[in-house]
Amino acid sequence: MATSTSSPLKKPVTLACIQLASGADKTANLSHARDKVLEAAKGGAQIIVLPECFNSPYGCDYFPSYAETLLPSPPSKDQSPSYHALSSMAAEANAYLVGGSIPEADPDLASKKYYNTSLIFGPDGKLLASHRKVHLFDIDIPGKITFRESDVLSPGNKVTLVDLPEYGKIAVAICYDVRFPELATIAARKGCFALIYPGAFNTTTGPLHWRLQGQARAMDNQLYVAMCSPARDTTATYHAWGHSLITDPMATVLVEAEEKEAIVSWKLDGARIEETRKGIPLSGQRRFDVYPDISEGKVRFDEDNVPS
Ligand SMILES: NC(=O)CC(=O)C(=O)O
Q1: How far apart are the first and last CA of the chain?
Q2: Distance 181 CA to ligand 1 centre (A)
Q3: CATH number assigned to the domain comprising residue 220
Q4: Does an H or E element contain 189, and which?
Q5: Number of folded domains in the chain?
Q6: ipTM over cut 0.90
Q7: For each successive 10 residues of the chain (308 residues), what is the average pLDDT?
Q8: What share of the chain is helix, strand, coil (3-state, %, to 5)?
Q9: Measured at the alpha carbon of residue 117, what is the angle toward residues 256 and 9, in degrees to the nearest 5?
Q10: Is any atom of ligand 1 closer than 6 Å to the C-beta of 136?
Q11: Domain of residue 150, residue span
Q12: Would residue 3 count as lying in a domain?
């Protein structure tokens, strides 16, 4: 069987995850995010990632009051200070910016629908793509944690791939999305070199699954995975796990933060993907005569980002 080992990453690129400490003051959060994005860029990062809900506390009680109208773009500054702040940060840093996620209000305000949305900007400050969290975080572990995003949020309905012309494609999904390997596998088969997850696991599921999920998605798909959490704030209602990390295509954790504010970064290299796929040549060994190729089924992509 033929085995393709050419790398989906065209040239090395430094990726940084900012494990941001944020609080209840949106303006202060945006200004702090800008400082850290510029710090990451100064450190050499060309792709910079912010955490889930970086401009607000994380929790169902907060989503409606922090929500901004983001799409169709571009919204006005009044509708979305976060959209404009992220666009300026990307341009100032001259870097690709995966803008964590922010609570989004549906443009039809009367619908009272909200989403957990990531905006991805290019180095010129232009919006490249957006991803609304597809799998809402609804769990109930008695005595530990009950969370029901679906009480307030509506889900997104597409797989998000973003073309960064000089490097190749990335996939962006949010937190709980990482637990659904189908999204990751589709993205990998459509040629992504990295899966990027702004996320906020907690102190119950974090120690059990955060690292494992990142490593599993990297191992299954033989590409880089970045998971970017907020720093832990024990005065907040939700205690984020932290531990932002980057794994390589062999599922080795290359860098990992602790729970405090930090920037973790790594130079991603296409040769590492190629070497992994050559050594363990899964792509030529799949048995689509036994089971279907889920990436060839009816997959919903962003109309502006349909993979070739
Ligand atoms: N916060 C999330 O969306 C997911 C999470 O904490 C978990 O999967 O655990």
Answers
A1: 23
A2: 14
A3: 3.60.110.10
A4: helix 181-189
A5: 1
A6: yes
A7: 69 98 97 98 98 97 96 83 97 98 93 96 97 97 97 97 98 98 97 98 98 98 98 97 98 98 98 98 97 92 64
A8: 30, 25, 45
A9: 55
A10: no
A11: 13-305
A12: no
